[in-house]
Amino acid sequence: MELAKQLLSLAKKRVHPTVLGTKPLSCNGHSAVLFENRILVLKKGSKSDDQIWFLEVDTEYVRQQRKKLGTEVVAWSKGVIGNAEKPIVISGPSGVGKGTLISMLMKEFPSMFGFSVSHTTRAPRNMEKDGVHYHFTEKSVMEKEIKSGKFLEFASVHGNLYGTSVEAVEVVADAGKRCILDIDVQGARSVRASSLEAIFIFVCPPSMEELEKRLRDRGTETEEQILKRLRNAQAEIEQGKSSNIFDFILYNDNLEECYDRLKKLLGLDGFVATSPKSAPREINLPTDHSVSKIDDKIIISCISSGLDKESKNSIMLDVSSLKGGAPGRTRGLDFQVIGSMDQLS
Ligand SMILES: Nc1nc2c(ncn2[C@@H]2O[C@H](COP(=O)(O)OP(=O)(O)O)[C@@H](O)[C@H]2O)c(=O)[nH]1
Ligand SMILES: Nc1ncnc2c1ncn2[C@@H]1O[C@H](COP(=O)(O)OP(=O)(O)O)[C@@H](O)[C@H]1O
């Protein structure tokens, strides 16, 4: 796409969009308008869920990635109408019952929650499926992908690499579901410091003895791995309780009671599961349109020709309402039709 090249070269020169003014750009029918630290691009002739794109030049996410990777960064981000609910980050020592609680939640509310499938370099357990429980990955591959900016967060846990890819969170939000992340305390700290707004829950065992019993009874680890997990558990529990990362601490003593408390803090007690929430609204931009910007409003003027008349429509996007959701997506788009005029041709 020619326009993309044109915009990227502007972005690479690190010309701040506001310096370029608000004159819309146009190329091959694609149009673009610059504002604040993003460039809105309307793609010609694409499907309604692929029409609105942002080239992020200096947004919070781009600044974080630049710092993390130590290189220049620009990022494409897809425009999504409406907002996704805040993801839920669940942390806690190995064997405390995170996976069990998450499975119960997903089983009771299948249309409401989706699991963020992490990448890991550890070997799969007997019942674990690639792409379902984890994306099992070679260390060298994962290290390369970390360098290329694929991950929202990553950490070395019990001697293996684990990471949440940007894509893992996006696919859940795109399906209209609330994302659940099962990640360690280091990962939770990274997400807390990132542009992803989430609810943070730390799951605590009733005692170290009970934790050891659960780990041993699960029977998925070797003796060496169990001892390593127990050694790390003490520090994780101290950090979980004392750091200000977590919004809630949940004691998993009796499983049913703990699950009820989890549902309560997520506002699900007494909730009757119903059909999935309606899919996000879409707008259909005709190929023939022009874009202009007035203050923090972007006006898209559309002209469509019918059999005997031409109709003009204006759609307004209030840029001040944009919200950062998962990186890779710009959520919170709210389009309003502000005028429609039919003309006889
Ligand atoms: N930072 C980070 N931690 C992860 C991720 N995925 C899993 N973990 C954590 O890695 C630890 C080990 O997970 P796992 O090997 O499945 O063992 P388990 O906790 O004993 O079930 C747990 O604390 C998980 O929460 C991730 O993507 N990022
Ligand atoms: N409240 C509980 N009481 C007794 N056993 C539990 C409880 N919660 C989980 N378990 C068991 O403990 C083991 C570890 O749970 P799991 O969900 O795999 O932990 P994690 O995902 O935190 O590593 C599993 O065998 C699970 O059935």
Briefly characterize the structure:
The chain has 345 residues and is of the alpha/beta class.
How would you sum up this structure, described in words?
The protein is of the alpha/beta class. The chain folds into two domains: 2-82 and 280-344, no CATH class; 88-265, P-loop containing nucleotide triphosphate hydrolases (Rossmann fold), CATH 3.40.50.300. 29% of the residues lie in helices and 32% in strands. It has nine helices and 20 strands. The chain has helices at residues 2-12, 60-69, 98-108, 139-147, 166-174, 185-193, 208-218, 223-242, 255-265, and strands at residues 25-27, 30-35, 38-42, 52-56, 75-81, 88-91, 113-115, 118-120, 134-136, 151-157, 160-165, 178-182, 199-204, 248-251, 289-294, 297-305, 309-318, 323-324, 329-333, 335-344. The strands form four sheets. Strands 1-2-3-4-5-19-18 form a seven-stranded mixed β-sheet, covered by helices on one side. The chain has a five-stranded parallel β-sheet with strand order 7-12-6-13-14, sandwiched between helices. It has a four-stranded mixed β-sheet with strand order 9-8-11-10. Helix 7 (208-218) packs across helix 8 (223-242). The chain is elongated, with a radius of gyration of 24 Å. The chain starts with a helix and ends with a strand. 31% of the residues are buried. The model is unreliable at 14-23 (pLDDT under 50). Bound molecules: guanosine-5'-diphosphate and adenosine-5'-diphosphate (ADP).
